[in-house]
Structure formats: structure tokens, C-alpha cells
Amino acid sequence: MRRVGxxxxxxxxxxxxxxxxxxxxxxxxLDPAENPCAAPVARHLRGSFEDTQALDHLVAxxxxxxxxxxxxxxxxxxxxxQRMPVRPSPRVLAIAQDRLEEKRFIRGLGIPVAEFHxxxxxxxxxxxxxxxxxxxxxxxxxxxxxxxxxxxLTQLDDCERVWSELEGTPAIAEAxxxxxxxxxxIVVRDAQANHRLYPLTENHHVDGILGYxxxxxxxxxxxxxxAESLAFRLVDALDYVGVLxxxxxxxxxxxxxxxxxxxxxxxxxxxxxGAHCSQFENHLRAVTDLPLGDAxxxxxxxxxxxxxxxxxxxxxxxxxGVNVHDYEKTPRPGRKIGHLTVCADSVEELHGRAxxxxxxxxxxxxxxxxxxxIAAMVG
Amino acid sequence: MRRVGxxxxxxxxxxxxxxxxxxxxxxxxLDPAENPCAAPVARHLRGSFEDTQALDHLVAxxxxxxxxxxxxxxxxxxxxxQRMPVRPSPRVLAIAQDRLEEKRFIRGLGIPVAEFHxxxxxxxxxxxxxxxxxxxxxxxxxxxxxxxxxxxLTQLDDCERVWSELEGTPAIAEAxxxxxxxxxxIVVRDAQANHRLYPLTENHHVDGILGYxxxxxxxxxxxxxxAESLAFRLVDALDYVGVLxxxxxxxxxxxxxxxxxxxxxxxxxxxxxGAHCSQFENHLRAVTDLPLGDAxxxxxxxxxxxxxxxxxxxxxxxxxGVNVHDYEKTPRPGRKIGHLTVCADSVEELHGRAxxxxxxxxxxxxxxxxxxxIAAMVG
Lengths: 379, 379
Known about the structure:
2 copies of one chain form a homodimer. With 379 residues, chain A is of the alpha+beta class.
């Protein structure tokens, strides 16, 4: 029996564990919370991520360890890695959790990233703002997510305010990228260097959090080929095992990496129904040395995040082709508590279904943005 | 929060609970086993089905009760039904668990069934054999499954042996039906009399146990219409709520009911990946008064049961389009321990994928039977 230890027990661990249940792969999750999201479908080890005793339980019971978020400290994963395979490796995590290291690594591979500068002082900040021109972005090097730890600098006079808000946290300044749209790539690689790449996904953020995704993203064959070359170069250079999510900007038909996440990713949730083998199943297959599954799309999908509170369930389920994913989390403003995926066999069908879904979800205001993007999916 | 009590904790309860997890519907399973199949994904109440205290836990904690197999006694369900909604109703269960009642009920609706006679004595048995002509089938009225409790009577001289093997168990004699093939229908109905019908499934038995199913079954529009009329008449007459499985014989392009199962059914397992909304999700939706989901097929599917022991997992997962469902049961000869569903967008693709799957599953001997049936799916 295969058994996977997951550091972190949030919704990503939950969906990994659910995929594992079907395959006969058991998951043990380590999480400090009393009742984390993954607990109902996995064995829950309660403990902090630095709790050596809890970590050693994973070592004793599991054949491999992974993690469901990138803000875990590297040290506990290194403790594990000395005792069992950790996939992806702590080295990858160390790169991905530091925006400076990440950007240097990517640029070192010759893959385009936005111009950037280290910010360790008010002087650095001012110099970067002048060099990059305004507006530019200031981001903490570590622990940023969902738009937190980010500032858009629009005038030099704001440097002092941003610097004081940083409270001395190491940061970087990034050039403002006038991108046409945001897309993401979900790639999976196994220890034998086999790869599978899901079709590009188009992402739309609302208030700094992913609002909805469309897949396959309306795109050209050339762009999918460029994405593939970029993704494979990246995972091979990292000797990556598991699912890697790559967030990209599209500019003039070319791609630039915004950031990477060394794990399954919100923008890949549509793969549960919208692809033959989901990102969750493929991550488990990769880390347990099982053959990778088919990443091709099944029809056309739109994924909508449920944030803060649930719309009425009856209305959602009355929509054709809608799949409800409830993470069984306590609703709280700004919290991701579930997602909805609507699938269709044709773009025309998706158009009608997505509109009905937004209405039922009380998110009709998104239709003006979504409608033209669905229309663009044809061809 | 919706919460469903399930009497029985086998693989059907497990797959119901897994579907529920996604929707935010919790399932509590009552099962006497120490670690039943559904326990890792549901709350497990350990107790016999007659354990009033355990039943009252379901009453206290759940909004509705259902069951995952039809051989549970009616009395405990009546105990529940006096205290909470039980869906489908104990009355339906009482009919479905007795072949005589079931056949009388179906015939009473003007729906074709094989000719049958009650067998309560050796005299009855002889008389039935003469009237029905040989061969005919002798079946216990209750507790039969997977070909158990059945005899094929080929000569009158065997009456005494069969009668002695029955050991006085009430039985029926059924005419031998020279059917062309076996198909099944999965229908779901809610308390407001809304229906959804999955496409007909074609079933092939091996050693008395379902071996594999194809869906949608190669069939004509007229036959799907006949199936629909028959299914809707049946569930309406039973005031049925939930999923009902109907096993049918096809004879000269017409359908005759073989038996019904008042629950989700092995021949509907393909709906997890092969339909927009699975039989498991639709059963939960129906019993919790949520809108029914889309029962249309997504592409073409073949479902293969895993019986007795697991083939090597690597080989199975290396097959394109294959979904592995491991029930986490201890392997034992003749025991259903999992199933495999292979899906494809076209019949041609299914042909190649199904052949690869049979080979990887070590069931190559089934290909001679399956191959022409897949070929028949076109048109």
C-alpha cells in the first residue's frame, strides 16, 4: 500500500487525499489545526511543522512526503529529506519561497521574467523605483500570497510609506508588466523525467485573489509550444518531482514567468472534471513513482472560486454541468471555502452554462469580463 | 449542513460518502464491521442493523437515511422511518428484497417480466418446471446476489436435488429467457417527481458476477425511449426517491425487467467519470432534496470489475484514460475489491484503450467478447 505524508492539511491536501482514496493511496496530513480541511479524508497528525516527533511519524508510516503550501519552513522538510524522499525537494521549496531566488533561478535559465531589484533599504527602494520607472511593484521576498505583501508604487513620494510598512522585511522591486492577460501552466514531472503538461489556463483575479479560470485558455498552437518548452526547461533544471504551477504573463503573444508554486494550484482545480487525470491524481502518481496520467482536457471548463460565503446550494446545483466542491471550511470574509467548475462539450454550451452559474452564484458582475473570454475560446 | 445516514458501509456507501465530501454533504454509516470500506471517508457507527441505539444516533445526527444494500431487514428501516425520512422508503425495500413481490409489482404495472411461479414445496417445483418448460431458473425469494441462491433446472429429475438444496427456503421458478443481451438502467427521482435517466448500460457477467459494462449501450433511439417509459412508470408507481437500478433483458429489440435494486448499482459505476453527474452524487442530491444533476454521458466508457485480487497498479495506470477505483478492501477470491473505468471521446479511441486495459488487468480473455460490443457502439 502506498502512503504519502503531506505537510499541511488545507484544501489542497484534502483534494490530494480524495484523489488518493480512489487510487488506494493513503495520505497522512501534518497540521497544527484541530480540525484541518483534509482531516475528514486523511489521517491527521496534529502538530506544528517543526514538531520533530510528528515529522518522525510521517517517516515511520509513509513512503514519501510532500507539502500542500510553500510557506512551510525548509528545515523540517530537510529533516524529512534525510530520512525519506521529499517531493518536490526542499531545495526547490527554498527557491520557490523566496521571490529573489526564484527570479534569479528562472532568469538564469534564459526564461523571461520582469526586471527586478533587491530591496533591503529605503535607498535600495528609491534607486529601484528610479531604474524601473513608475509604476513598479514592491513585494516581500517571502510569505506573500493572494496579493498580500505587495505594494504598487505610483509616485516616488510613496517610497517612505512603503518602506515603513515593510518594517524591514527583505523585499524586491519588480518592473510593472503591461501584460495582456495572466495564464498559468500546470506541469507534472516524475523521477524518470517523464512530463505531462495541462493545457494553458487563463486566470482572472478579483481583489487580488484568483476569481475564475478558463481552460483550455484561448491560445495559439505556438504559445502552447512556447509554454511547453519553458515548463520542461524549468522542471528539468530543478529535477522536479510532482506538480509545479507556473503563473505567467502574456505580452505581445509571448510568455513571461510571474511566479511559480511548487505544488498543486488553484488555477488547476478545473482538471478534476475538465481533464482526464486531475492535477491531484498526477501529483500523487508522480511522487509515488506511478505512471503519469493523461493531462489532456475533456471539453471546456470554467472554474469559479467561492470566497467568504456560500451562495445558495440549490441554485448552483440547478445549473447544468456544474460541479460543487465544498472544502467544509468555516466561512470567513476573504477565505477560499470552495470552488465551482462548469464543464461543457462545446464553447457555445459553456457560454450558456457559465452565465447561468454566475447568476446562481450571485457573481453576475463577472459576466462582462468572462463572456468575451469564452467567446475567444473558439479556434 | 446536510447529513445523510447510510445503513451499510460497503463500497457503495464509500462512493456515496466520497461524492458527498465534494458537495459538503456528510455521511454517517452504520455497519457492524470493525473497519468497513466506507469508514475512512465517513463517520462510522459500529453496530448491527437492528441496534436501536445505533439507529437512534442516525436519527439524532442526520436529516435523512438511506441504505447501500437491499438485504437489510425492513424492521430497522421502519424504526428509522417513524423518526426521519428514509429514502427510498421501507415499502420499496420490502418489495425489492422479495423476488415474488417484486415480479408481481412489476407485472401489475403492465411491464414485461419472465413468467414465474411460487415454489413453496417440491410439488410446486415440479409443477412449475412442467408449466415453464425446461430449462428454467429456481431462485430463492430473498437474499440472492451475484448468482448466489440460483439454480438452472435442466431436467425434471433434478427437482429433488434442488429442493433439498433449498432447505425449505421460499423460492420462485422463472421461465428461461432466451435474451439477446443484458442491459441496465440507472434512474433517479426526487420527492417532487423529477426524473433523470442515465443512458442504457450493457452488462456482461463472468461466473455469475458482473464482469464489465459498456455505456452508453449500443442501442436504438426507440429502445432508449422504451426504457425511459418503463423506468418512469416504475419509479412513479413506487413514489421512489433516490437512485433505482433496473436490470433488463433485451429480446427482439424489446425490454423485459429481470430485477431491480433500490440503490446505486455496480452497473452505474462508469457514471463517476462517464457522466456529468455520477449516480452517487445524484442519489445524494435526490435524498437531500437538492436539484438533480445531468445524467448525460461524457464520451464512451467501459467499466471492468476488479475481483479477488489487484492486477499490478503500474500497468493499469500506464493505460490512457483509465480511472482506478480501489475500495481499500482485503483481497479475497470472488470479492469485488475495486473497479476500473476507461473513458474515451470516440468509439475508435475506446477500442484501443479498452484492449490495452484488459491486457494490463490480466483479463485479455475478455477481449473476444468485448471487442464486437465496442464496435457495435457506433451509430
